[in-house]
Amino acid sequence: MATAGEQLCGHSVGARDREAFVQSARRVIAWGLGFGLSLTGAMSIWGDASIDFLTTSYDVQQAAKQFMPFATLAPTMGVLAYTFDGIFIGATWARDMRNLMATAFVIYLATWWALQDYGNTGLWIALLTFLGVRGLLQALRYPTLLRAAF
Fold it and tell me: How many structural domains does the chain have?
C-alpha cells in the first residue's frame, strides 16, 4: 500500500489535483486497513498451524506460538504507519515523516525501557506501540500538511 500511495499521491501532487490526492489517500488507507485486518484475522486462525508447517522442532514451535498473539497484531497496528509512509513520500512530506518517526521512536524507547524486565513480551509491546503511535501521529499531521500542500 505504501508504494501505491507514493505513486498515486505523488502524481496528484504533481498535477496540483487536491481531489485526486484526497481520493487516492482514502483508497490506499481503506485498502491497507482491509488488508491489515484480513492478515490479522488469517494469522489468528492459521498462525499456529503455519508455525507447525515451518518447523518440526517442538521447542521452536512453543517459543514461536508464545509470541504469536503479538505477531498477529502487527499488521493491524502497523498499517497506518506504512500506508501514511507512502502518502507522505508521494507528497514529498519526508521531513515531517522523519520528525514523527523520531517522536514515535522516543516513545518506543520509553516503552521498551519501562517493560524491559518482561523480556520479549516487553519488546513486542514496545514495537506494537511504536507502530501504532507512528501511524496515529501521521494521521493527526495529515490534515495540516494537506491544507498547506493545496
Answer: 1
Strand, helix or coil for residue 50: helix
Residue count of the chain? 150
Letter for the amino acid at 28? V
Residue-level pLDDT, tens digit, the chain, 150 residues: 999 999 999 999 999 999 999 999 999 999 999 999 999 999 999 999 999 999 999 999 999 999 999 999 999 999 999 999 999 999 999 999 999 999 999 999 999 999 999 999 999 999 999 999 999 999 999 999 999 999
| Distant-in-sequence contacts of 38-41, Cβ < 8 A, 24+ apart | 39/75, 39/76, 40/72, 40/73, 40/75, 40/76
Measured over the CA atoms of residue 80, residue 86, residue 87 and residue 88, the dihedral's sign is positive
Q: What CA–CA distance (Å, rounded) separates 80 from 100? A: 13
Q: Which domain holds residue 34?
A: 2-149
Residue 129: alpha-carbon gap to chain centroid? 10
pTM of the predicted model, to two decimals? Answer: 0.91
C-alpha cell at 99: 520528525
